[in-house]
Design goal:
about 625 residues, four-stranded mixed β-sheet, 4 helices
């Protein structure tokens, strides 16, 4: 995951909680040769969240130029959202900033209320820009969010109540980023450079119950883990050099990126209550004060890359990319929690300071066989060094694995794209082969479940087909659909990889009033049943089709011009209140199946949102 082109790492779950939807301008999914530019950790691509920047005239005296507010309600969790923002510009400067708040209770499904799924989040962002000349821009971005939430299920939260209750209180991030973009007149035509600092801080509270066959809780472990940091410092620079040669137009992109992540060892306090298995009477109650559970760790990375794009003839574009990464991961050898298995404790010393290098690359082409038909092909190698969190971090629900090896892969892609003014169809097939594939696995510790650990599963293969289509049937009516088929296999054991949805997609239709007064959107999100599983890791899931309706009403046109740019946005999701489970949801097979293991998705939800822009 990236934000505005820079890596966003430090937590391996719930990263999207650090962003308010209203501050996002667009989300880019980059695949194939493009991932060479962003880092070898992107095994098959990356997601880049682009936040809103100021648009408009920055000349003249400084003044406020606009802003807005929005507020919304959702019935499924009695949720409430708000976002208030303002922007201004002058003398070459500009700014845009906002405050966000989100609150929700335990959400509803057709099977009942999902316990420990409530949340609250407050935060804000500001982006300051300066354009000394046309084509030149300096930008400073600041972001801070703090939230409290319960993990009802999924990674780190499965199996959920009554066995495991995990809460984050608080879960915080503080970010700063400074960036420069410039259009130049020399050999180098375009440059980008950025430097960022992200700091995370979380208190993770866990209640882990052991329940016997008679339904009596025989052991309760209450713990609070203070996950300090990490502090992540990084940056990125690139230059684009377009040039002409007798063999066609060419563009070369060269660059350098890197980061350093410093993660102090977590601190843990716990209380262990033991009860009689027949009567439930407490037999012992042991309290442990805050102690440091894990050692301090760091991980550093420097990568250099080059991407060469060549157009030897008008219909054909070729690309070739190369990258070289150096990783250094360090850990102290103490303190180590006494609960960590002895074989894991011994590994820390042998992994105290490890260097790893990785060359990766890609080759690709786009060939326009007809003005409206393109053929696409690509082959790319990939590499991912396990994070210092996966290797060494100790939390209330996560066990370390210092013996992890880097993932390596190679991906083959091929496809076609048909496009006209009013329609587009793109089909892509891919085949990826991995070595030392990393997977989150549910494990037990001293006979107690509720823990997860990253493990290498040997060799694996993932194949798939993706289809995207859009047809502007009339100026007001737009039809669209997408479809994905996935199949993953652990080729060392010939067992299916877990948590891959075999078939899923979306079909929708949108009507937009020619006068811009309103629009109506209807979609159906669907997935096929999943029966090809490794029963030691997951359960079968049923297929589903979830219809959703949305309407956007421009009140300034429908009600009164005095309302200006005021929108009423209505939504009706999961219309038939279907109970369903996404096949990609993590499950802990050490526990029985329930509506938190795997986690059942949200039931019927009625949403109302008012948004005013001035």
């Amino acid at each position: 995951m990236f934000i505005d082109g820079d890596r966003f790492r430090g937590r391996n779950t719930l990263q999207l909680n650090y962003l308010a939807p209203d501050e996002v301008e667009r989300v880019e999914v980059i695949r194939g040769p493009g991932s060479v530019v962003y880092g070898s950790e992107a095994l098959t691509g990356l997601v880049n969240v682009v936040t809103r920047s100021y648009t408009g005239d920055t000349s003249g005296p400084f003044r406020f130029t606009g802003g807005g507010w929005s507020t919304g309600y959702g019935s499924a969790a009695s949720s409430f959202t708000t976002y208030d923002w303002v922007k201004g510009a002058g003398q070459g400067f500009d700014f845009i900033g906002g405050f966000a708040g989100r609150w929700g209770g335990d959400y509803q499904t057709s099977l009942g209320t999902v316990p420990n799924s409530d949340y609250q989040s407050v935060g804000g962002n500001i982006k300051l820009g300066y354009s000394p000349d046309i084509g030149q821009r300096l930008e400073l971005s600041l972001r801070s969010y703090s939230e409290v939430d319960g993990r009802a299920g999924g990674v780190g939260g499965a199996p959920g109540a009554p066995y495991l209750q995990v809460r984050q209180d608080p879960n915080q991030v503080h970010s700063a980023r400074i960036a420069y973009t410039g259009e130049l007149d020399g050999l180098v035509k375009h440059v980008e450079s950025s430097f960022y600092v992200n700091y995370f801080d979380t208190k993770l509270s866990t209640i882990n119950n052991t329940i016997n066959a008679a339904g009596i809780t025989t052991r309760t472990v209450k713990s609070t883990s203070h996950v300090i940091g990490p502090l992540v410092i990084g940056g990125r620079s690139l230059a684009e050099i377009p040039w002409l040669s007798p063999w066609g137009a060419t563009k070369t992109t060269v660059g350098l990126d890197g980061f350093r992540e410093a993660r102090p060892g977590s601190e843990l306090t716990s209380e262990t209550i033991t009860r009689n298995g027949t009567t439930g009477i407490v037999t012992s109650d042991v309290f442990s004060p805050y102690t440091k559970q894990g050692p301090d760790t760091t991980q550093s990375n420097i990568g250099t890359f080059v991407l060469h794009e060549w157009k030897p003839i008008q219909p054909l574009t070729l690309s070739a990319g190369g990258r070289f990464d150096w990783f250094n991961t360090t850990t102290d050898t103490s303190p180590l929690a006494s609960t960590i298995p002895a074989n894991v404790r011994a590994l820390y010393a042998s992994k105290a300071n490890v260097d790893q290098t990785a060359p990766t690359g890609s080759l690709g082409f786009v060939y326009a066989v007809l003005p409206s038909v393109d053929l696409i092909g690509n082959v790319a190698t990939s590499f991912r060094q396990p994070t210092n969190s996966e290797l060494f971090a100790v939390t209330a629900t996560q066990l370390p694995n210092p013996d992890l090896k880097p993932e390596r892969g190679v991906t083959y892609e091929g496809g076609a794209r048909f496009h006209t003014t009013n329609a587009e169809l793109k089909v892509t097939a891919f085949d990826t082969h991995y070595e030392n594939f990393l997977q989150t696995v549910a494990v037990t510790l001293n006979g107690v479940g509720g823990y997860t650990q990253s493990q290498n599963v040997g060799k694996a293969e993932v194949t798939g087909v993706e289809l995207e289509a859009r047809w502007q049937m009339t100026p007001s009516v737009n039809l669209f659909t997408n479809f994905t088929q996935l199949r993953g296999t652990n080729t060392a054991t010939d067992k299916p990889l877990p948590f891959l949805a075999p078939y899923r997609g979306r079909v929708g239709i949108q009507y937009a009033d020619p006068d811009g007064a309103y629009s109506i959107l209807g979609v159906i999100d669907w997935a096929a049943s999943k029966t090809r599983i490794d029963p030691a890791q997951e359960y079968t899931t049923s297929g589903y089709a979830i219809p959703k309706l949305y309407a956007t009403l421009q009140l300034g046109k429908l009600v009164s011009p005095q309302l200006g740019d005021t929108k009423l946005i209505l939504g009706l999701e999961n219309i038939f209140n279907t109970a369903y489970v996404d096949a990609s949801t993590f499950v802990n097979r050490s526990y029985p199946r329930s509506f938190t293991n795997p986690l059942v998705e949200t039931g019927r939800n009625i949403s109302v949102k008012v948004q005013h822009t001035f």
